[in-house]
Amino acid sequence: MNLRKQVDFPLRRSITVLLAVMTSTLALSTHAQSADPETAASESVELSAASNAANSQQLTLRQLGANYPMNLRGIEGIDSVNFDVRADQVVTGARLQLDYSYSPALLPDLSQLNVLVNDEVAATLMLPTESAGTRQQQLVEIPPHLITEFNRLSLQLIGHYTMACEDPKHTSLWAKVSNRSTLTIETTPLAVPNDLGRLPQPFFDRRDARALSLPFVFMSEPNATQLEAAGTLSSWFGALASYRTARFPVSIAELPDAGHAVVLATGAAAAQLLGVAEVTKPTLAMTDNPNDPYGKLLVVAGADSSQLKEAASVLALGSQTLAGERLTVENVVSLAPRQPYDAPNWLPSGRPVSIGELVANKALSVSGYDPGTISIPVRLPPDLFGWDEESPTLKLRYRYTPQPVSTNSSLLVSANGKYLKSLPLPSVERLGDDQGLLDLLKSDDSLLRETDIDLPLTNLPLNSTLEFRFMYDFIKQGECRDIIIDNMRGSIEPDSYLDLSPYKHFIAMPNLGVFQGSGFPFTRLADLSETAVVLASTPSQEEIAAYLTVLGRFGESTGYPASAVRVTDGADPEQLRDKDVLIISGNDSLPVLDAWGEYLPAAVSGTTQRFELSDLTWRMRDWLSPDPDVNHRGARTSISLAGDRTRSFFAGFESPVNPGRSVVVLASAAPAALSELTDALIGGEQYEGSIEGSLAVVNGSRVDSLVAEETYYVGKLGWFKYLQWLLSGSVIMMLLATGLAVALLSLVFYVVLRAKARRRLEG
């Protein structure tokens, strides 16, 4: 049965492709016959071009995961990337624009470059001598029937340099494929049923490698509770999108002309949208977009705003339980509150964490003489305090195939591309007289070893990747005897673990770097239950879009929806008590900004702007010290300017309402400029500079950090560690503490000796 399904699937997909193409052709033909021939012909071409552009996806090999150019070596070198196709689309055409070069030593009659899709040959490129050693470009058409929903694109070099005996690892056997090579996929949309059981599809499809852009539609001007509901949903989609990033355009009472959207509605507007007489309970539904036959609307509705928020929480927290075209929520009970630092995406810091918890077991094994890298993603809590602590220990257990004679094979360990350690992989010969290991090899052709590796926090950025690469020496047998037997295996045992439990949570603030990297301190609680977002009482669409995009970034960091966030206009300071405060302002009308103006390192008022500057502008650092005093760059100058254009900025400071609480401000003089801030927050290779310190100014793709004034601390240290840390930063305090300790000890000895002398005299 399974074999029949595998055989029938390409046939069914090909039939679907043919029907889609025939339908498109028939539509164009009908349109052409109903008008003037010349006009119809031109309109047909324009329609076809627009359709192809709308349903064409172009990705470089770098975007598909090839961080470096593919280096194909040996008589059969191969490298691969993965690409997927959305479930609501069918492929009608695909092509690979290949950018490559190859060795001049290759024999053209025996050498070739194969393009494979899902291990089937899509094309074979000859390697003529006259174009060897120079950059080549070739357009390869890929048959659509080879492409399924999940795909692997492979480039394979079959290389030979001589007709006689050859070295299969000879240095002249090479070809390089640039990771700027592009894969273009043309698709036709498919109509999918209205079924909540398909969620998060089609609104988010994990097969789609592009950034998520999902419109949010409010059927009326949203109040604070409705904005909280929308924030819950945007953070959920942000968590799903992960590294792809997500943006959320906003409109009021206007459905998108094409594509999918999330619609939030209450009362009569919700009833009209759902086609019912009245909405009395929290309701979720998937309906067709009336403006697009292939578009869908995810309707979140309720009789009032509180029911709307309840429906949004059910959707974000329990989407796996939903089914059908429409359903109502009967009851929701919160069983357990979130705890600090328990975000699903963050590495737990209170216990040892096994490698098997972080990646699937099948991703921990590699094979061959030139195997790929085993990558393990690690997302650290941003406020781990590494001062005067032992490095976090990785208890590594690994297994490999020992070679028979002495070699220089090794296991390379690195973090984010930075070399950490090399572990030898001894051959059978080097095991010597260790009879226990030799006996073990008789029953198992692999050898298990373990070691401890120190991973200093300076080598582990917040979002890190631990990388393990098995490097095997190829043993030369002699002329005409070199044959590659692909029996080399290596694996990382899933019970290897990383232990961060010795570290405390303590960090100097404000620190916009950790805000950009992980949303800290707001994400300390994954549901944002200690976060208040301040928006204007009637926020603009751009301000709402910025708010949703920022919460999407928080969801990307924690992997959990912000189901407990609070939105306010900041008029009542009590609403901000015991909260970390995020302020988003697209103009200068927020009262809270006026009230807290003395704490802000920057301000914008109409065409006038004020910025404070420190030595950070003269001495930019690409590292952070565990000693907060080293990072401190207090403001030295304040400049006020007036002009026809103002710059947007990020600012951070301690909350005037609660000591130890944080305020982060995203501000611009015009609502449209807020997109500059959210784009900079998402980041990318196009940005010059980074968001750091307590003030960062954004101008297009340029980011300037101006002040790093760390004035307060978040977290707790044990009393003894805190005392050590305080004394280490001040020689005077160290001398005073030493003098006090000597005085106390002298007093104790004096009392003890006097008592002893008194007893002796009395005796």
From TrEMBL:
**Pfam assignment, any one:** BcsB
Q: What is this protein called?
A: Cyclic di-GMP-binding protein
Looking up PANTHER family in the UniProt record yields: CYCLIC DI-GMP-BINDING PROTEIN
**Any transmembrane segments, and where?**
725-753
What is its pathway? Glycan metabolism; bacterial cellulose biosynthesis
- Cleavable signal peptide: 1-34
Q: What is its main location?
A: membrane
Query: What taxonomic lineage is listed for the species of origin?
Result: Bacteria, Pseudomonadati, Pseudomonadota, Gammaproteobacteria, Pseudomonadales
* Biological source species: Stutzerimonas chloritidismutans
Q: How does it sit in the membrane?
A: Single-pass membrane protein
Q: What does this protein do?
A: Binds the cellulose synthase activator, bis-(3'-5') cyclic diguanylic acid (c-di-GMP).
Keywords, in A-Z order: c-di-GMP, Cell inner membrane, Cell membrane, Cellulose biosynthesis, Membrane, Signal, Transmembrane, Transmembrane helix
Where it sits in the cell: the answer is: Cell inner membrane
Subunit text: Tightly associated with the cellulose synthase catalytic subunit.
Quote the Gene3D superfamilies the UniProt record gives. Answer: Galactose-binding domain-like (2.60.120.260)
ATP-binding in keyword set = no
What family, per the record?
A: Belongs to the AcsB/BcsB family.
